[in-house]
Amino acid sequence: MNKITNHLPTAELQAIDAAHHMHPFTNDGELGQKGARVITSAKGVFLKDSEGEEILDGMAGLWCVNIGYGNDSIAEVAARQMRELPYYNTFFQTTHVPAIALAQKLAQLAPGDLNHVFYANGGSDANDTNIRMVRTYWAEKGQPERDVIISRWNAYHGSTIGGTSLGGMKGMHGQGSLPIPGIEFIEQPNWYAEGGDMTPEEFGLARAQELEAKINEVGADKVAAFIGEPIQGAGGVIVAPDGYWAEIQRICQKYDILLIVDEVITGFGRTGNWFGSQTLDLKPDIMTVAKGLSSGYVPIGASLVSDKVAEVLAGTEFNHGYTYSGHPVACAVALENLRIMEEEGIIEHVRDVAAPYLAEKWHELADHPMVGETKIVGLMASLALTPDKDARAPFASDAGTVGLIVRERSFANNLIMRHVGDRMVISPPLVITKDEIDLLIARARKALDEGYEIVKEKGLMVAG
Ligand SMILES: *Cc1c(COP(=O)(O)O)cnc(C)c1O
Question: Which residues form the signal peptide (predicted)?
Fold first, then answer.
C-alpha cells in the first residue's frame, strides 16, 4: 500500500511543499520562506501539527467541519460505499442509491418547495450551475434577454470563473479579466464600516433598496436573479441589519426576480437552524449548499431547486453536469453526516447550548481597547478591530495590516482565527463544548492583547 507519511521531519515536508505545492489564496514566495504549518491529524475541534502542537480550530477548517474531526462512522460508510460502488455517473439515464437517498433527504430538510437537487463538487461549481440554470429558466419561459444576475460587493460565491464573477471581491476580479458579462453589483449591508450616521435599520433599508434602483437601471425585463449569502462569510461575517432581508425579498417578488440564497456556510446548522434561510425567513428559488453538507469529509455541493424552477427546466435538456455530480461516495458520506447531525441533536446543541454561550463570551471581548463591534449569529462570529471605538474608525494602515498581526498571534497561541481585512472571524465546529469555548475565548483574548502591544509598538494605533 502507498503510505503517505507524516513522519518526515517538519523542515523536510515544508521544503517539499514549497518546491511543488501551489497553495490557494497564498503568496507562495512568502510562505516558502517561513514554511507552512503541517497538519497531521485531528479529533473533535482540535488539530495536531507535525511538531505535536494541539491547535483549536476556530474555523472548522474552511467553515465546513460541522460535526468535528475524526468521526469513525463516516469513515466506515465511505469505505463500504467504495467497495460496493465507488463510482458511477448519473448523466445518461442512470442513477444510484446514494444520489437518490441524499436528494430525498435534502428535499425533506430544505425549507419551502426546494424539492429538487442538482449535484456539484463544491460551492463554486454549484454557483456556476446556478448561473446557467437561471438563464436557462428565463430562456425557456421565452425571455432569453433576462440574463443579468445582481450580486453584492464583498460577497463570496466561490473561485471558479462563475463563482468569482458572482462574488464581489475586487482583488479576485482583477486576476483573470472578470466578472463575466451580465453580472451587476450593489453595495453590501455592512453598517459598522459604511453606515455613517444612519441607524443600522435605516442603513439596512437603504442598502436593500439599492436592489430596486439597480433593477430599474438595468431594466426589470433584463434581470434574471439576485444572489446573496444570508450572512456574508468570507467577506468578514457581515450580519445585515434587521429589515434588510425582508426588503430584498419584497423587491425580488415585486419584479419576479429569482432569489438565489448561497448557504454554503450558513447551511447545515451554522446559524442554529438547518438553514440560514430559516433563521432569516428567506424564501429562495434556488439554494447553494456545500461545505457542511459533508462536514468537509469529502467534496460535495449542490443546488437545491424549487418546484417552480425545476418544472420549467424539466421541459428542456439542461446541457450541464460534472463527471462527479452525485458521486456515490460523497453522497453516502453526506447522508451519514446528516444522520449524525439529526440523531445527535447537533442543531439543538448549537441553538440551545453552544451559540448562546459563545455569544455571551464573544460579546465580552467588546471591552478590549482595540475591538469596535462584536457580531455573532449561531456559531459564526466576527469582531471589528479599530484604533478609535467611538468613531468606528478604520486604521490608517492598509486594510488587513492589523488583522494579520492579530491572526498571527492567534496562530502562535494555537487558535485558528481568521482575519478579513481588520475584522477577526471564527466559525468553530458545531460540536464545540462550553469548555472548548472557554479555551477559544481565552486564546482569542491573548491574541488580541499580544496583537495590541505590537500594534502600539509599531505606531499603528492610528485612525485613517
Ligand atoms: C466557500 C464558499 C463558496 C465556494 O465553495 P467551494 O466549495 O470552495 O467551491 C461559495 N459560496 C460561499 C458562500 C462560500 O462560503
Answer: none
To test the ligand 1 pocket, which listed residue (157, 268, 293, 324) has its Cβ within 8 A of the most ligand atoms?
157
Q: Taking the domains of the chain in order of start, what are their residue ranges? A: 37-67+345-457, 73-343
Distance 288 CA to ligand 1 centre (A): 9
Name, in order, each residue with C-beta under 8 angstroms of 337's C-beta and a sequence gap of 6 or more.
66, 67, 74, 268, 292, 293, 294, 295, 297
pTM of the model as a whole:
0.98
Q: From the CB of 124, is ligand 1 less than 6 Å away?
A: yes
Ordered DSSP codes for 133-154: HHHHHHHHTT-TT--EEEEETT
Per-residue model confidence (pLDDT) at position 67: 98
Whether ligand 1 lies within 6 angstroms of the CB of 235 is answered as: no
Across the range 113-124, mean pLDDT stands at 98
Does 128 sit in the ligand 1 pocket, CB within 6 Å? no
Task: Kindly report the protein residue whose alpha carbon is nearest to atom 6 of ligand 1.
Answer: 123
Closest approach atom of ligand 1 to CA 122? 7
Cα 156 to ligand 1 centroid, rounded to whole Å: 7
> What pLDDT is recorded for position 4?
64
How far is the CA of 117 from the CAs of 17, 287, 433, in angstroms?
38, 10, 33
Task: Output the CATH code of domain 73-343.
Answer: 3.40.640.10
Alpha-helical runs (H) found in 199-291: 200-218, 244-254, 276-280
Q: Which of 271, 241, 423, 438 is nearest to 355 (CA)?
A: 271
Q: Which CATH number fits domain 37-67+345-457: 3.40.50.11260, 3.60.20.10, 3.90.1150.10, 3.30.70.60?
A: 3.90.1150.10
